Amino acid sequence: MKFLCYSSLLLTTLLLLISSSCWGSDLENELHHVLDIASHLSTSVCQRTPPPGLKNKRSSAVVEVIRRHGPCADERLLNQTKSSQLSLGEEILRNDQSRVKSIHKRLRGRRGVVGSPVSTGDFLDYGTHIVTMGLGTPETNHFLILDTGSDLTWTQCQPCSLSCHRQQGPIFDPYKSRSYSDNSCNPSECSATSATSFNPGCSLTNKCTYSVFYGDNSVTTGFLGKDKLTIAPNETFSDFAFGCSLFSQGLYGLTAGLLGLGSGPISL
After folding, report:
1. Which keywords does UniProt give here (predicted)?
2. Which site in 41, 45, 65, 101 is 20 to 30 Å from 157, CA atoms measured?
3. By three-state DSSP, how is residue 186 classified?
4. Over residues 233-238, mean pLDDT
């Protein structure tokens, strides 16, 4: 009788251990997931081939957008910047932390909670995607930050009489371009900057002036002009309205200016 009791107790204990082991294994599987990240890693080789679907389309223009830290990034734009002393990993981590703080700030604002301000520009340094645009006749190429949150496309211009930031490559000289013309200060053209500017107006020389202030406390000031813009081979815009900045201060890195892709009337 005792043997049967002991056997029954031993069997019950074994069943409990097996059940506990299976349950623990299921729980562990629910709490942990193994992900294969190899397929999500960026390529280390620069590939400049257009997407297959656009190769043979005559109505399509392919514009190369370069990720700041991608394999096609121009090293000249990464040198001698505010964050050049940081390793790539440290800078990416810093930018991710800044983005999280910015999201938390917006969420607190929706809930009516007052928090300390976060200046995203202090962390982000400058834009993460850069394009090369041709301007003028003869064409000169300029590195521009791609910005979908603003409308005005601008580049630093000579004589840069106020103050310009250091950029990679020569500063655009509008009066050396055969296709350049000043944008006269008429109401229809100058008022278009009101969507992107706090201070549109007319100068003493009848030029349409602008002063744009961005969310990271960067600022640029200049006048509107028109010239031929080349965004891709055989894809140009004649009389494209853009900003000729004579003063720019902020987090632009070594780029020449900004390509505005917002929804305003002056946007590209």
Report:
1. Hydrolase, Protease, Signal
2. 65
3. coil
4. 84
